[in-house]
UniProtKB/TrEMBL annotation:
Database matches in SUPFAM superfamilies: Acyl-CoA N-acyltransferases (Nat)
Leader sequence residues: none
Pfam family, one: FemAB_like
Protein species of origin: Solanum tuberosum
Ranges in a coiled coil: none
Cross-referenced Gene3D superfamilies: 3.40.630.30
InterPro entries reported in the protein's UniProt record: Acyl_CoA_acyltransferase (IPR016181), FemAB-like (IPR007434)
Top-rank taxon: Eukaryota
Protein name: Acyl-CoA N-acyltransferase
Length: 197
């Protein structure tokens, strides 16, 4: 990474301990029912403030934890003995997938989202010898923290030929636009020149 970007990340990470917040990474049996109950509150706080639809239930998190064991990584932030935020990650193959984040209603800690969702994920991937961290879609703020966008692909079967033709025409234009934006982002990203070549 460029020196200025490394410095910025170090400063962001220092702010966590300066706010008396302790980060912990929990897996499998370390994640207790009380963690899932609290995480559900965080999840609901996020959905209530952002999307308005909580499509996952409290029971879902308990079952996922019980069924997936060490393939679940819950990054928790504590102030004293109180959980104040958490980020849910899943592990599959050689990849750590960042999926959900939430915090107590009405709380704010500078840079806590970045620490819980991005920096702790990178630390965990290194410790677990995983080759990839997939931080999810969207968020230009991820780029300056080392998460460069990569193309993703999907497959769709369209029965209506007229509709298929319209989609195909759109995809030609969108593909060119995505390539242009990806090149611009690579050039303006946090990494030194030729790191991706």
């Amino acid at each position: 990474m460029k020196q200025s970007k490394r410095k910025n990340i170090r400063q962001e990470r220092k702010k966590i301990s300066a706010q008396n917040v302790t980060m912990k990474r929990l897996r499998g049996h370390e994640i207790k029912a009380s963690h899932w109950d609290t995480f559900y509150k965080f999840y609901r706080n996020t959905t209530d403030n952002k999307w308005g639809t909580a499509y996952l239930t409290r029971d879902f998190f308990h079952r996922m934890g019980a069924k997936m064991g060490d393939n679940v990584l819950l990054v928790v932030a504590e102030e004293g003995d109180e959980l104040v935020a958490a980020a849910l990650n899943l592990i599959g193959g050689d990849t750590l997938y960042g999926r959900l984040w939430g915090c107590l209603p009405g709380t704010y800690y500078a840079n806590l989202h970045f620490e819980a969702c991005y920096y702790q994920a990178i630390d965990a991937a290194i410790e677990l010898n995983l080759s990839t961290v997939e931080a999810g879609a969207q968020g230009e703020h991820k780029i300056q923290r080392g998460y460069m966008p990569v193309p993703t692909y999907s497959c769709h079967y369209i029965l209506d030929e007229d509709f298929k033709r319209i989609i195909d025409d759109f995809l030609v234009r969108e593909t060119a636009q995505v390539k242009l934006v990806m090149n611009l982002l690579q050039d303006s990203g946090p990494f030194k020149e030729n790191v991706w070549n």
